């Protein structure tokens, strides 16, 4: 695990944040490129991606706060302390999806065609993001004595590196979807 990538003075740059930012950048670029190939306006698609990312991050934070509401009621200032962690992917997906649908309806753009493009690249975003989880040392698996186990520093126990399992499985899903998407006219 390597939660802190580097420091600038007293300011820490966290691996998780850097990996998530890279994931957002890479996947947003690929979605934008695919949207252009499919005949969408680059400006319209950029605006949609920007909206989905912002609302998705807010939704991820909101769900995390709701799940741990008792803690945040006792420590309300921590609500804005995102550097201490606290995103729930389910909230990001739900809120991002709702924002996308509302945007697409308002702009009278094809919802299913657009969501197909986003769905194609979502597993890639997850695959990259889970590497951030591994570097951060979160989202780990059960303690086990197994040749693939990894020692996590918080308790020095050998555990399943579930983050890496998720990363590999999501990347595999992405490859399958990418192949099927390219072959869709022949299906």
TrEMBL record:
<feature type="transmembrane region" description="Helical">
    <location>
        <begin position="117"/>
        <end position="137"/>
    </location>
</feature>
<keyword id="KW-0472">Membrane</keyword>
<keyword id="KW-0808">Transferase</keyword>
<feature type="transmembrane region" description="Helical">
    <location>
        <begin position="13"/>
        <end position="33"/>
    </location>
</feature>
<feature type="transmembrane region" description="Helical">
    <location>
        <begin position="87"/>
        <end position="105"/>
    </location>
</feature>
<protein>
    <submittedName>
        <fullName>Prolipoprotein diacylglyceryl transferase</fullName>
    </submittedName>
</protein>
<dbReference type="Pfam" id="PF01790">
    <property type="entry name" value="LGT"/>
</dbReference>
<comment type="similarity">
    <text>Belongs to the Lgt family.</text>
</comment>
<keyword id="KW-0449">Lipoprotein</keyword>
<dbReference type="GO" id="GO:0008961">
    <property type="term" value="F:phosphatidylglycerol-prolipoprotein diacylglyceryl transferase activity"/>
</dbReference>
<feature type="transmembrane region" description="Helical">
    <location>
        <begin position="164"/>
        <end position="181"/>
    </location>
</feature>
<dbReference type="GO" id="GO:0005886">
    <property type="term" value="C:plasma membrane"/>
</dbReference>
<dbReference type="InterPro" id="IPR001640">
    <property type="entry name" value="Lgt"/>
</dbReference>
<keyword id="KW-1133">Transmembrane helix</keyword>
<keyword id="KW-0812">Transmembrane</keyword>
<dbReference type="GO" id="GO:0042158">
    <property type="term" value="P:lipoprotein biosynthetic process"/>
</dbReference>
<keyword id="KW-1003">Cell membrane</keyword>
<feature type="transmembrane region" description="Helical">
    <location>
        <begin position="45"/>
        <end position="67"/>
    </location>
</feature>
């Amino acid at each position: 695990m390597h939660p802190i990538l580097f420091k600038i003075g007293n300011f820490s740059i966290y691996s998780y944040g850097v990996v998530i930012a890279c994931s957002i950048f890479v996947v947003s670029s690929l979605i934008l490129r695919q949207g252009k190939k499919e005949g969408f306006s680059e400006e319209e698609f950029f605006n949609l991606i920007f909206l989905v990312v912002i609302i998705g991050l807010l939704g991820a934070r909101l769900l995390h706060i709701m799940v741990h509401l008792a803690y945040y009621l006792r420590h309300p200032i921590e609500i804005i302390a995102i550097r201490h962690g606290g995103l729930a992917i389910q909230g990001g997906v739900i809120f991002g999806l709702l924002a996308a649908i509302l945007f697409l309806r308002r702009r009278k753009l094809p919802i299913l065609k657009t969501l197909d493009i986003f769905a194609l690249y979502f597993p890639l975003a997850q695959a990259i993001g889970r590497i951030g989880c591994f570097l951060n040392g979160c989202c780990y698996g059960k303690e086990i004595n197994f040749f693939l186990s990894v020692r996590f520093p918080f308790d020095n126990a050998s555990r399943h590196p579930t983050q890496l399992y998720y990363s590999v499985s999501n990347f595999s899903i992405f490859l399958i979807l990418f192949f099927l998407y390219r072959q869709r006219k022949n299906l």
